[in-house]
Hints:
alpha/beta
Amino acid sequence: xxxxxxxxxxxxxxxxxxxxxxxxxxxxxxxxxxxxxxxxxxxxxxxxxxxxxxxxxxxxxxxxxxxxxxxxxxxxxxxxxxxxxxxxxxxxxxxxxxxxxxxxxxxxxxxxxxxxxxxxxxxxxxxxxxxxxxxxxxxxxxxxxxxxxxxxxxxxxxxxxxxxxxxxxxxxxxxxxxxxxxxxxxxxxxxxxxxxxxxxxxxxxxxxxxxxxxxxxxxxxxxxxxxxxxxxxxxxxxxxxxxxxxxxxxxxxxxxxxxxxxxxxxxxxxxxxxxxxxxxxxxxxxxxxxxxxxxxxxxxxxxx
Length: 304
């Protein structure tokens, strides 16, 4: 059975919260993302973007590729007003900052259940940027958003073991919630790891179990067909990319940086954590390179 790794961080929602069971628990998410900003600073790029970058040249700086990824989603809003922006699973706020600094957004709101990320974003000091510490199900818009984004958060919305119908229902609930908070025609950018074309053999299955128990507990990757089915009638899919090789390059850069800063990373966390992440960053390159998993970049437009 896939389990959450032990942690002692109190939950943000009660165990009987109506949407707490289908996806990863708050404790499981905080177990991963609240290891400490100092630890992540040692191997992420300066924007602290912890999702797959968008590469033109594998030799270019990681920060440039990460900013290209952010602009890829924000560019989908060109030609339309961009006053209010929502980012579900906002991380350390890199998309929020680019939205206000480069695209003229007047209000950029991020939703996260990571205490560290929430504190980091709100310490930026820009009155146009705000992070809210709450599950996405609890977020309510003060006014309709002009664009919404969710970059590699939906992987935590469904737990392993659910049926396809149950997963689709969860994703549709998310899309309905975003639909209800956005204006007609609003852009919606979604990025997600997904299952690939190949079925895992014994070697890969062992690594996947390690990731499911020690890195991303209680989380499950969707399939593109499930997301497309869930979005039907709510969002028009305008573009889809599978950039799995971009994730190979991103993971390789992270692994290289963590290896180079191993001593400092062990001081910021501990030796066991660093060893665990080095194993994860190495194995994950294999499953993306060999098409066991993919990386979806989906551009959508709100219907209605």
